[in-house]
Amino acid sequence: MSATKETPNISGYHDKTAIYIDEEILQEAVLEQSLKDEAERIVKQEGIGFNQAHRLSLEYRNIKKIDHLWKFSSLTKLNLNNNFIKKIEGLDHLVNLTWLNLSFNNIKKIEGLNGLLKLEVLNLSNNRISLIENMDSLMELTILCIANNKLQQLNNVVYLRKFKKLFTLNIDGNPIPEENDEEKYTLFLAAYFQQLKYLNNIFLNEDIRNRASAKYNLDIEEMNQGELQAQQAAEEKRKQEAILQMHEDAFVEQLNGDYLYTNIIQNDAELKKLHCLPGVDELLEAFEHQLVDLCNQLFEVGLTEFKRRDAEVDSFFSRLNVDVTDNQSRASKVLADFQMEHKQRTVDLQEAPEDEKKSKMDICLKEIDVLCYNLMAIEFQLYSYLEETIKKFDNNISEMTGSFSETAQGIFVHCRELEDSHHQKITQIAVTTLEVVAKGEAEDDLPDDVRMLFLDKNTVMDTLAASHDNHLQTINDRETQLVTRAEAWKVALIKGIEDSELKRNRMRIADIHRYADYLRVQLKELT
């Protein structure tokens, strides 16, 4: 249930001994920052909702290590300044963080920030950092303060050019040699950071921009060209990775070529000995060509079926979002109507004579029960409808996955038949060669190891049988991999949807009960 304005929303001094973040410190910080009036009563009664907190301040607490923050999934602003922190860690779960202050600590290395994809403001000033690094994922960064650290190379600051939204940078107070030449220092940074508006709290005006451009024009053009080439290469790599990922999602990766054929024969050392026999190379070439054709056929079927499944999944989630949104709209209307009437009823209750308060209280309590019933009915209706919708979706996806698996298995049958035919033809050549060798009529250029192999018929036939079995096993393994992964994907998809819906339903029911209890407590406090 979305919060209404009547509903509570739970969102120093240095000691001598450094400490670690623990549950008690977090509870104290959340209480200090977000509990007000009625909210404090609710939190003390129901427990502190760390996952609802949006801000957390832990400055001036002599904290030595960042820990115990994984529950703060909604946190957007975190203050950890003025502590004894040596390492940036324990922040991976703060995926909604946009503001982070780690200034005035003992940090030597930038690390542990890769999961903060939404981070916009980062303050690392007054630490011991000597290198700007490990920030590649912070593409939303707009403000960076890394003043009063141990940066020594101005060229290292150029690393920050990749952050196209960065408009405020403070690197003042670092032992960078160029800092002594204020003009060179400022012009260099103004030239290399054309989107930057403020440098060390100084506005980069048009005059500075013009002088910077004139001084470093050639260098900037060269760097821009290099960055463009790197960007194009990275984009091409991303495209190729996306294509390969789509092939994996379609369960047909590496089937659009000779990979299966190569995998079949690459470890067949005995078969390679037979290449010198008349007609074997031609047979292998024909076998490869026909097997690759079958693999390409399976590959194309796989991509087509993947697109069908993907469209079905997208359609299902679109319908699901519409259904849930419609349900929320219905519930919001019921809630809005109730709140308007409830407000008047509470006024009437407060103003009623003592002998009428009980009857008016009973009316208010009854209306709360009615509200609870109506919201539950709406939720039950949605849950039942979605349960049926998920079953239909399960049937559709199962049919699609099953149909694709059957088609794939049919193509793998052809692959085995092709290998059987190939094996028979190779065997016939081997039998003919056995007869020729037995008569002493073998060609003089026949290699000695092959000639020795064909002195024993049983050895030859056993070798061919083992080769044939290995080839079939390779084909069978690829078939099993495809069918198993397709089924596992379907099962995981449906289970994920069912688990998500069950969680949503339970949270919704809990919200309704909590809100009803809150209203009842409010009423009792009015009398």
What would you say this structure looks like, in words?
By secondary structure, the chain is mainly α. The protein has two domains: 19-224, Leucine-rich repeat, LRR (right-handed beta-alpha superhelix), CATH 3.80.10; 259-526, no CATH class. It has helices at 23-34, 38-46, 154-157, 182-192, 206-249, 259-265, 269-273, 280-351, 354-438, 448-453, 457-526; strands at residues 19-20, 55-57, 63-65, 77-79, 99-101, 121-123, 143-145, 168-170, 198-199, 202-203. Helix 4 links the parallel strand 8 (168-170) and strand 9 (198-199). Helix 4 (182-192) packs parallel to helix 5. The longest helix has 85 residues, at 354-438. The model is unreliable at 1-18 and 34-48 (pLDDT under 50).
